[in-house]
Amino acid sequence: MPSLPFLGRLSVRDYATLIFGFLFLAFESLLHIIILFLPKPVINWFYRRSRVLFNRISPPAKAHSEERKAGERVLEARDFGELCSLYGYTHEEHVVLTKDGYLLGLHRLPSKVGEKKLHPGHSTGKPVVYLHHGLLMNSEVWVCLTDARRALPFVLAEQGYDVWLGNNRGNKYSKKSIHHGPNSPKFWDFSMDDFAWHDIPDSINHILDVTKADKLSYIGFSQGTAQAFAALSIHPSLNDKVNIFIALAPAMSPPGLAAPIVDGLMKASPTLLFLFFGRKSILSSATMWQSILYPPIFASLIDRSLNWLFNWRSDNISQEQKIAAYAHLYSFASVKSVVHWFQIMRNAAFQMYDDDVLSPVVRTTISSYRPARFPTRNIVTPIFLLYGDCDSLVHIDTMLAQLPPHTVSKALNTYEHLDILWGKDVDKDVIPKVLDVLHEYNAPLDTDIHIKSNGLIVD
C-alpha cells in the first residue's frame, strides 16, 4: 500500500472527517469557479447582502472612533506602498534573484517621515534591520496597524534605522521565477529548506550589498524565525553577517494543533494535504471569501478558525485592528511548506523536508532512516526570543533545548501568537524590548527618543 501511506493509521471518525473535507473542498472549488465568471456588480451585491445581514444580527454600531477610521483606511489600502503612505512614509522596492531562479520582492523604509533621501537605492549609513514575516503572510503584516506607534517598522525608521522587509517565494510580492510560471506545480515545489538555503541568505546578501553595511539585525515573526534558525544553522558564514537575531513568537517544533481531529490526521500522514490541495498553493480561495464577505464577517470567520485550530482568543487585539489586519493576513504559500510543518510536528524535531513520503508504514529498524535535522545548536549569532506565555505554538523548554546556550528568552504575560504583531499594547510590551536589544548590538543612533539599555534578562 505504498501509495496510501495513511491507510491503517486512521479511525472511522478520521475517515469521516477526510470524506467531509474532500466534499467541502469540492464545493468551495466549484463556488470559486462560478465566482470567477460572475460580473463585478453581482459580487458587489453579495458583499452588500452580507453587510446587511451583519448589521441586522449585530448590536448597533457606535460612533466612528479614531481607531475605526484608521482601520478603514488600512483595510482599503491595496499594497505595502499604500499602507506606508497612510502614515507619511516613502518606501523603496527591490528585487532579489535567488540562486535557484525565484524573484523575491524586498521593501525598504530608508528614512523617517519628512526626511528626504536624495539617492534612492544607495547606502544611508544607518544601522540596518531586516524583518521577515510568517507562514501564509507577506511584508504587509508589519505595517497594517491602526496606529503608527504600534507598527515596528515605522518605529524603527523613526529611531534612525534603515529598515528592510522580506518576502518568501510564492507570496504576493514574489510570485515569479525565471524557470516556471505560478500555474506550474514545479513553481510550488518548495519547502522551508528552500527558504533556508536561498531566500534568507540571498536577501541578506542583497541588503548588505546595497547598504554597504558589514552586518544587519534580523527580526523574524513565527515562520520567519524558523527560516532564520534554519539558515543560520546551515550557513556558518551567515552568522558573521547578522549581529543579533530577534525571534518574535518563535517557531521551531510546535507541539501541534488544538483541533484534535486535524492534528491527529495530519500527524498520521502529513502528505494528506497533497490530496486535499494538490501540489500548488494552499488556501488560495481565501481571497475569494474576502471579496464577497463584509469585513467584520470575514474577521469573525478568521477568529473562529484560529480559535479552533490553535485555541487563540485574540483578546489582546482590538476588533478594529482585526478587521483591518485580517484583510492583509493571507498570502500565497506552497502546500509543500505546510506539509513540512506537519512532518516537524509529527517527529517533534526541527528537521529538513522528508522526501521519503512513500516509505512503508513500518520500517525494519528504529534507526534505519531519519531525515536530516537543522543543526541549530551550531548558531553563533546572538539570539533573543520574545514569546507569549499563552501561545500554543511555543513550547519554550523544547525550543531552548535545541538552541545554543547563549540564547536569551523573555515571556510576555497573556500574549498569544498574533498579539505580538497587532496587540493593543505592543508599543508598551513588545517594541521597547526590541529597541533595547537592538541598541545593545548597534552603534548609538541619532534620535530624539531615549532608549533604555539595561542588558538582556534571562527568564
UniProtKB/TrEMBL annotation:
Its main location: membrane. Residues 127-423 form the AB hydrolase-1 domain. The chain crosses the membrane at residues 15-38. One of its GO terms (biological process) is lipid catabolic process. Keywords: Hydrolase, Lipid degradation, Lipid metabolism, Membrane, Transmembrane, Transmembrane helix. One of its GO terms (molecular function) is hydrolase activity. GO terms for cellular component: membrane. Pfam families: Abhydrolase_1 (PF00561). It is a single-pass membrane protein. It comes from the Eukaryota. It is found in: Membrane. SUPFAM superfamilies: alpha/beta-Hydrolases. This is AB hydrolase-1 domain-containing protein.
